[in-house]
């Protein structure tokens, strides 16, 4: 499995969860794209300024450590956590959708 696919699983899992949870398209698009964008912005801000390093604790993108991957360090446990989060979010999405009363 390529390294970048684990982060895509999380982003697509979050989008899929909110599309199966929300009844309105505007809500599913707002949350399904807003949360991954917020994760990206938190990570970006934490790398810009040292005082904003605390924002790294509010994003799952911090587990995708590109420096460790490029240097060949021990990064597999972070990718396994990312994959686990993605699988849990997809399973939660399926459970929410199965219990959902679809408006006709």
Low-confidence stretches: none
Largest sheet: number of strands, sense, barrel closure? none
Number of domains: 1
Radius of gyration: 16 Å
**Mean pLDDT metric:** 84
Name the helicity range: 55-70%
Shape from CA axes? flat
Secondary-structure element series: HHHH
Strand content: under 5%
Based on secondary structure, the structural category is mainly alpha
Work out the helix count.
4
Distance between the termini: 40 Å
User: What's the count of strands?
Assistant: 0
What would you say this structure looks like, in words?
With 104 residues, this protein is mainly α. It has helices spanning 4-21, 25-48, 66-71, 76-99. The protein is flat. The relative contact order is 0.18. The model has no long low-confidence stretch (mean pLDDT 84).
Write a concise synopsis of the structure shown.
With 104 residues, the chain is an all-alpha fold.
Give the SSE layout:
Layout: H1 4-21, H2 25-48, H3 66-71, H4 76-99
Helix pairs in contact: 1-2, 1-4
Keywords:
flat; 104 residues; single chain; mainly alpha; 0% strand
